[in-house]
Amino acid sequence: MFRNIKINTFSVRQYIKCLDDNKLPTALSLKFSPRTRALYWLFWLAYKFYISGDNFYELFGKKLDNIFKLELYWAKKLRYIKKYSGGYKLTDK
User: Tell me: the pLDDT tens digits for 67-83?
Assistant: First the structure.
């Protein structure tokens, strides 16, 4: 049910040192629940300004609208997102 999320170091020197030492450049490893994994994915996806419901389903096996029903409702109500066929677009707000 829980999977580890590994976050690489942001230090270029440390990253190179890890690779030279045949190690993974992991700075932090966290156990995420399925919902937390989905939230993390949504956070990084927001930089694209588009959230695909199809991609969400492929990754998590559940519909985006079912998992984040309340959050999406309020995001639409506050005009942070607009629903389009297949997903949501973030607004300039």
Answer: 999 999 999 999 999 99
E-assigned strands of 9-55? 26-32, 50-52
Sequence-separated (6 or more) residues with CB below 8 Å from residue 46: 90
3-state secondary structure of 82: strand
- 81 and 59 in a common domain: yes
Average pLDDT over residues 37-52: 90
3-state secondary structure of 59: helix
Sheet holding 87-90, edge to edge: 50-52, 87-90, 81-84
* Count of structural domains, the chain: 2
Which residue is listed with tokens 């005009």? 79
- Give the structural domain span for 40: 35-93
